[in-house]
Amino acid sequence: MKPLWQANQGVPAGVGAAPGRPAYDATVGTPIILFGAFDRHNFGDLLLADVAAASFQDGDLTFAGLVSRDMRAYGGHQVHAIAQLAAESRHQGATLIHVGGEILTCSAWQAAVMLLPTDKVKDTVTYLSARPEERVAWVRMMLGTSALAPYTLSRHLFPGIGRVVYAGVGGVGLADSDSAMRAEVLANLKEADDVSVRDKHTLAQLVAAGIEARLIPDPAAKVADLFGERIRRRAQAGKVAETLPAFPQGYLAVQFSADFGDDRTLSEIADQLDEVGSEYGWGIVFFRAGAAPWHDDLATFERAASHMQTRSTRVFESLDLWDICALIGHCRAYCGSSLHGRIVAKAFARPCINLRHPSAVRTSKQVEYAATWEATNACAVVDIRDISRAIRRAVSLGVYDSNTGAR
After folding, report:
1. Which three-class secondary structure state does DSSP give residue 346?
2. Which of 213, 313, 340, 361 would disulfide-bridge 305, Cβ 3.0–4.6 Å?
3. Residues 256/337, Cβ–Cβ less than 8 Å
4. Going by DSSP bridges, is the β-strand pair 251-255/214-215 parallel, antiparallel, or unpaired?
5. What pLDDT is recorded for position 27?
6. What are the residue ranges spanned by the domains of the chain?
7. Dist CA 126 CA 143 (whole Å)
8. What is the mean pLDDT of the chain?
9. Could you tell me if 288 and 369 are in contact, meaning their C-beta atoms sit under 8 angstroms apart?
10. In this predicted model, what pLDDT tens digit does every residue of 191-203 receive, in sequence order?
11. Residue-wise pLDDT tens digits, 346-395
12. Which of 36, 167, 184 is nearest to 111 (CA)?
């Protein structure tokens, strides 16, 4: 039996090898710009940057976002503003790779707000929501571009660029986007040299729009193959090493975004987690999969823990990318709203479920990804009142031994 850090099957369960070319397609010897939303703290985006970089270990790499930001304190990279790079002659002829994530539906307003310090969000949003003209000017000032979908690059912004690649991107809600933004996204995709997406729903929308695209798993599905040993070492010496002894029978890794934070929802989540902990003898470890605005919130987890009967809980505070990977990789199971939380749990053969927000009425990236890549996705995305039942189902499907973590 393989140790958990070697348990990845390369692509999600029930699926054969990804068809066609690799996710990251670049001309040998040219500079490579990896462009994505790793200019803010989101677990999945930070991880995708490293997965992409691993494909070009000897390449001339530059990490780019919408703003210049040093994310190395979180296990990320020094990120450069894409508009600034476009003005530099040394990047002429470079291959630009859009590095995964749900970037096709991220609006300029959303991007700008998520780049704010958390303590500035409420006042900024309140002020600008009532002043549309000022809002437009503020967004352009924040991002350095007038693009409506700024994480998709127009060749007009970067006329000297060589190849343009989209690698395993998502856009489940593209059909519901503002018509002007959707038109911009489709125009940018049509200009690209290679487009791959991570779910069938996004693929169908692009094909219907006349865009040649292909389907691949999210590149983060390779995390255990690429970084398993690094993550194992991190668990032995990092913040996870301080957590593991507190839960001798293991723990359920739990995460959900701050919009789950009303008292009624938290009370229901707490009841369900108490049931899981009682049945399996696990502790409950809450962690953040993103600290950028509109992501996760420590205070929400502390409130959830206060609703619980069991005292075998902990709020894991580290935001380091590799600590989060180690926490998920060594859990008994994962429960949360993050798609990349699910993808990493799957890579390490951990039972996992995603949570559906109580107000959700449409499909989601979590639903569509599971429907695309998982042979059995009956409990992939569940309502909060079904957490206990779904965890039980996920454990049984994985033939998972809750005492040893073995399959």
Report:
1. helix
2. 313
3. yes
4. unpaired
5. 61
6. 19-216, 223-397
7. 19
8. 90
9. no
10. 999 999 999 999 9
11. 999 999 999 998 888 778 999 999 999 988 766 799 999 999 999 999 99
12. 36
Using CA of residue 273, residue 276, residue 281, residue 285, what is the dihedral sign?
negative
Residue 277: closest CA among 122, 163, 402, 105: 402
pLDDT tier, 248 (very low <50, low <70, confident <90, very high otherwise): very high
Name the nearest CA neighbour of 69 among 91, 49, 94.
Answer: 49
Show the tokens assigned to 119: 């303590």
The pLDDT confidence band at residue 26, using thresholds 50, 70 and 90, is: low
Strand order in the sheet with 78-81: 69-70, 78-81, 61-65, 32-35, 95-101, 164-169, 194-197, 214-215
The DSSP annotation for 24-76 comes to ----TTS-EEEESSTTS-BHHHHHHHHHHHHTTTTS-EEEEESS-EE-GGGT-
For domain 19-216, the question of CATH label 3.40.50 is answered with yes
Q: Average of pLDDT values for 56-74?
A: 92
> Token pair 């193959």 is at which residue?
225
Which residue matches tokens 């096709």?
104
Tokens of 204: 């169908």
Q: Give the contacts of 311 (CB within 8 A, at least 6 positions apart).
A: none
Map tokens 């600008």 to a residue: 128
CA distance 188 to 325: 33
Fold of 223-397: Rossmann fold (3.40.50)
Q: What is the mean pLDDT of residues 241-263?
A: 95
Contact 173, 185 (CB under 8 A): no
